[in-house]
């Protein structure tokens, strides 16, 4: 990573521990490293505008219409999912940041708007949108205090390989205004990432992982395209390579049934 680099950051400020300036200090440090010609990106999901019928554990049929009325229309001002930690909120609050509207990403810096727009809402990890932007600049991904379970880039490989378990049997619907919904019949469902760490050994063997420390946290840096290539390599030899075997993971259990031809598609969000 150097002057002009674009970097997607996955981080845990808690694991990083006290650093000068906290999350703002982390952002400033990265901005100094990449300069004004570079850009910082973060994942900033919001699931609030999706039809509850598309969610994992949808409401009871008799409650569905009431739940649909409660759904907030699509907006770049939607709250960022708390599971992503504080850093995405810090980046989004910084003047000049741009955000895509659905299951979103934020970009800050050179070509910020361009990096996160052009998103295909039914296929957020398709070739357009944030991953198209990151790929177009041969961008990096920094994992600081988070494991490879956070490797959203791996979903890009599942999308590229058109994995059968990404298919939905309940079409993706997103509320775009009060009483107005857009439907994405080809909308894909990207699920469990617990086993994405299996991609790490491929990246390590290929010498693509740059490891170090951010504060107290273990950190690694790798090019986004190399992650996607490594995950595709695994999927080409085993379609279930990225699925976990955790007892109780219904998403991966269902995906395995789909791969075995026992089920057609999933409907979780
Ligand atoms: Zn799983």
List keywords for this structure.
269 residues, 9 strands, single chain, alpha+beta
Write the layout of secondary structure elements.
Layout: E1 6-11, H1 13-16, H2 22-34, E2 39-44, H3 64-70, H4 87-93, E3 98-99, E4 104-109, H5 112-116, H6 129-136, E5 140-144, H7 153-160, E6 172-177, E7 180-184, H8 198-205, E8 210-214, E9 217-223, H9 224-237, H10 250-259
Parallel strand pairs: 1-2, 1-5
Antiparallel strand pairs: 2-4, 3-4, 5-9, 6-7, 8-9
The structure holds zinc ion (ZN).
Zinc ion is lined by residues 192, 194, 244, 246, 249, 251-252.
What does it look like?
With 269 residues, the protein is α+β, with helices and mostly antiparallel strands. The chain has one domain (6-259). 31% of the residues lie in helices and 18% in strands. A seven-stranded mixed beta sheet has the order 3-4-2-1-5-9-8. Strands 6-7 form a two-stranded antiparallel sheet. β6 (172-177) and β7 (180-184) form a beta hairpin. α8 (198-205) packs across α9 (224-237). Residues 192, 194, 244, 246, 249, 251-252 line the site of zinc ion.
Order of helices and strands: EHHEHHEEHHEHEEHEEHH
**Portion of residues within helices:** 25-40%
Quote the distance from N terminus to C terminus.
34 Å
Given as residue ranges, the uncertain stretches (5+ residues, pLDDT < 50) are none
């Amino acid at each position: 990573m150097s002057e002009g680099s674009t970097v997607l950051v996955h981080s845990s400020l808690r694991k990083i521990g006290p650093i000068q300036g906290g999350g703002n200090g982390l952002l400033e440090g990265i901005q100094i490293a990449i300069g004004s010609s570079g850009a910082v990106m973060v994942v900033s999901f919001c699931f609030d505008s999706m039809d509850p019928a598309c969610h994992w554990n949808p409401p009871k049929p008799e409650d569905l219409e009431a739940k649909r009325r409660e759904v907030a229309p699509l907006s770049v001002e939607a709250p960022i999912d708390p599971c992503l930690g504080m850093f995405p909120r810090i980046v989004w609050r910084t003047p000049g940041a741009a955000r895509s509207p659905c299951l979103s990403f934020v970009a800050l810096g050179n070509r910020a708007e361009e990096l996160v727009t052009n998103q295909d809402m039914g296929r957020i990890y398709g070739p357009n949108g944030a991953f198209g932007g990151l790929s177009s600049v041969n961008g990096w991904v920094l994992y600081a205090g988070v494991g490879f379970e956070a490797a959203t880039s791996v979903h890009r490989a599942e999308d590229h390989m058109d994995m059968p378990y990404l298919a939905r049997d309940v079409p993706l619907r997103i509320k775009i205004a009060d009483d107005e919904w857009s439907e994405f019949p080809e909308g894909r469902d990207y699920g469990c990432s617990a086993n994405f760490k299996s991609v790490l050994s491929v990246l390590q063997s290929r010498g693509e992982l740059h490891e170090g420390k951010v504060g107290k946290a273990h950190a690694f840096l790798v090019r986004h395209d190399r992650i996607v290539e490594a995950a595709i390599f695994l999927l080409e030899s085993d379609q279930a390579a990225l699925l976990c075997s955790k007892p109780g993971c219904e998403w991966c259990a269902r995906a395995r049934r789909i791969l075995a031809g026992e089920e057609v598609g999933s409907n979780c969000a």
